[in-house]
Amino acid sequence: MLTNFDFSVPQRQSLIGVFVLFANTLQKSVRGLWPILVVLFLKKDKYDPLYIYLVVIGIIVIIALIAFLRYWFFKFYIDNKLEEFVIENGIFNKTKTTIPFHKIQKVTIDQSLIQRIFSVYKLELDTAGSDKKEASISAISQEMAVELRKHLLENTKSDSELNKESLVQEEQPKSFITISLPSLLKIGFTANYITSFAYLILIFSTISENLRQIGRDDLIDDNISQLEHFPVVSLLLGFLLFVITAILVINLFLTVVRYFNFTIKKDRKSFVLSYGLLNIKNTIINPEKVQIIKLTQNFFQKKLNVNIIEIFQASSDMKRASTKDKTKIPGCNKIEKEQIIKLLIDKLPVTQITLYPNIRKLLIGIFFYIIIPVSIGLMVNYYTNRFSLSYVALMVLFYVLFMGLILFFSYRNYRLFISDEFIVKQSGAWDINHEIVMPYKIQAVKTQQFFWQKITNIGSVVFYTAGGRISFSTANYSEIKSQVNKWLYQVEISKKNWM
Amino acid sequence: MEFTNQSIDISTLPKFEETVLQPLEKNYFKVMLIQFGIFYTLVLIAIFVLFFLEADVFFKNNISYLVLAWLVLSIITFLYLKISFAKKGFALREHDVIFKSGVVSETTTIVTNNRVQHVALHQGLLSRFFRLASIELFTAGGSASDLKIKGLLLDDAKKIKESVSLKIIEITTEILEQEENTMQDEVQTSDKANLNDESDAN
User: A480 partner at 20 to 30 Å CA-CA among A47, A338, B105, B125?
Assistant: First the structure.
């Protein structure tokens, strides 16, 4: 195979990478030293300006020197004899990190804003046995990064596999799906309301906190007292309108910035996702490691023909799935959704058996979320007499309607579709989720039954995968048990690698 | 490998719910009783100390109620322990391990041998006295899916550990040939570490 780089001799990063290192170090130093800088700035009359300039220039020179030394002493190479990837770094304290090829789980190539300015890339190695990214090279050229990734991943595969696929490798990975800006806008309009609401609160609390710190919280108080002149209804409506627009704007902004130019490329067995407006992210998904696929769609998204797909991979930690590797694909249409699913699990799930929840699930929900809260509320109001009767009736009506609808729809959508090869759980009231699991990915199964459920033959099941758990409750227990027996059988005879 | 894709007849499969479960060792009930006995005795001592020190009016005036409450609580705990002990059971099948427990909510956990990542054997101070041990099977499904059986005979626990560890090694050689060495190392080191673990599982 042709290669422009010889990784068996120690390599340095791109020379232009010095600037990235400089920017990084500067950023860190400023973050660490900003109180001193502020003090210097506020008390600048006390000191000689020349003195201040000298200090600032001195600091910058030192940082530049450190950046250069960090660049100079950072070397990486491939030890072909020991089958290891080696990184040496450190100015005074030398560190040598060696990563055996077979431990490499994932190689990612990312680009942050600073790295984009200098058109260099960051390469990170994910290894088994650790949650952290163990090794990263923060400034190399794209060709080198791609070449190095190829080398590293090639060596993790066995030889036979390599020969088989060497023909395919020569081709450039083909772009497979690109998510268009309109799709992203559709998602921005229809998803993540809660996250954006949290952002809104965060922004407001940050603003008010900052105003308070500089002693200008009177600004807020003044504005609020001015609002009191308006009638209540228009105030409420205006507030609602404001919140809704703000949420939509934040949503749109976040979605576009995060997922701009979302492309999926197929690269040998795995595929590569790259996206982002300011920070470009590159994620590799290995279909073998995918544990759960979650599809989400709400009413609006259905009408607009967009889907959200989330992919839960097995954690890089071999022993423990403590941090879940989750990847989100926003805004693909029905055809693209089916293509992606086929890529991940070869075929679309079919349904042979459907498990329904017992009507008691709805009744229990009504009891806990409607009857109990309403009676507590009524009781409290009876003793405190805070609200008038008509007002209370209105509130109760509103709450019962809202909650009742949520409960009813989540009951109606609650299903477990089972076939020989797939388990699909459908759930949700507004956002309807489909979680797809293949039985051989199951790690452990739990069945559970309360003693009063024995007469009615109701029970629950939870199954655990390396990418998360899925539970289905209040369903026919005999049916659950027979399905569990089947899943156990499938797991026990399976010779397939679950990750 | 010959590929077959026959449909599965569920009714002919072995049924986990009909497996005869083995109860825990009787001595383990004693261990639990001693542990709770120590705890409740300490609570009672604390109550009396506070009463005789006359540190608080509350303890001085309500000593009889406190002792009564203590008595009721300890009887409830005793009954609960007895029922929960009777409810617990485990079974080793050819391909998986089953553990059932729970008084109010009956839970059955099943971990198949070929999904076990590693096995740990714990032995506490009291358990050592009764030659008991507990065994823990770890899977990649996270801590909630780990299967822990307390109150096994040490020899039984060792047997389970060996058979499951053997299975792990078998699979490792079968599928993850390249990672065989590291996995075996991990299993062995974790065994050593766990056998040296002096602390009681409780």
Answer: A338
Mean pLDDT of A113-132: 73
Residue in the block written with tokens 């797909």: A309
* Pairwise CB contact (< 8 Å): B107 & A446: yes
Distance from C-alpha of A7 to C-alpha of A158, rounded to nearest angstrom: 20
Closest residue in chain A to residue B171, using alpha carbons only = A495
CA A387 to the chain's CA centroid: 44
- CA distance linking residue A127 with residue A102, whole number of Å: 9
pLDDT of residue A417: 94
Q: What is the pLDDT of residue A361?
A: 92
CA angle A28, A33, A37 (to 5 degrees): 130
Q: Looking up tokens 């072995």, which residue turns up?
A: B14
pLDDT > 90? residue B163: no
CB-closest option in A321, A482, A483 to B142: A321
Taking the C-alpha atoms of residue A276 and residue A110, their distance in angstroms, rounded to an integer, is 10
Distance, CA of A457 to CA of B82 (rounded, Å) = 26
Residues of B with CB under 8 A from a CB of A: 1, 7-8, 10-11, 13-17, 95-96, 102-115, 117-118, 138-147, 174-176, 178-179, 182, 186
Contact A444 B141 (CB under 8 A): yes
pLDDT tens figures, A311-322: 888 765 444 444
Distance to chain A for B50, nearest Cα, Å: 38
Q: Do A443 and B140 touch (CB under 8 A)?
A: yes
A319 vs B13: CB contact, 8 Å cut-off? Answer: no
Residue B179 confidence class, pLDDT cut points 50, 70, 90: very low
Q: Are A289 and A271 in contact (CB under 8 A)?
A: no
Q: Is the dihedral of CA A10, A16, A19, A24 positive or negative?
A: negative
What are the tens digits of pLDDT across the range A376-416?
Answer: 988 998 888 878 888 888 889 999 999 999 999 999 999 99
Question: What string of DSSP letters covers A409-445?
Answer: HHHHH-EEEE-SS-EEEEE-SSSEEEEEE-GGG--EE
| Closest Cα in chain B, distance from residue A452 (Å) | 9
Please state, in angstroms and as integers, the Cα–Cα distance from residue B93 to each residue in A439, A482, B133, B154, following that order: 20, 17, 20, 19
Bridge partners (DSSP) listed for residue A450: B105
Nearest to A20 by CA among A91, A114, A136: A114
Which residue of B lies nearest to A446 if distances are taken between CA atoms?
A: B109
What is the total residue count of chain B? 202
Q: Which amino acid is at A107?
A: V
Report chain A's terminal Cα–Cα distance, integer Å: 29
Q: Chain B residues with CB inside 8 Å of A450's CB?
A: 104-106
Distance from CA of B178 to the nearest CA of A (A): 7
Residue A212 is predicted with a pLDDT of 72
Task: Write the pLDDT tens digit of every residue in A164-179.
Answer: 333 334 344 566 788 8
pLDDT tens-digit readout, B66-83: 889 999 999 999 999 999
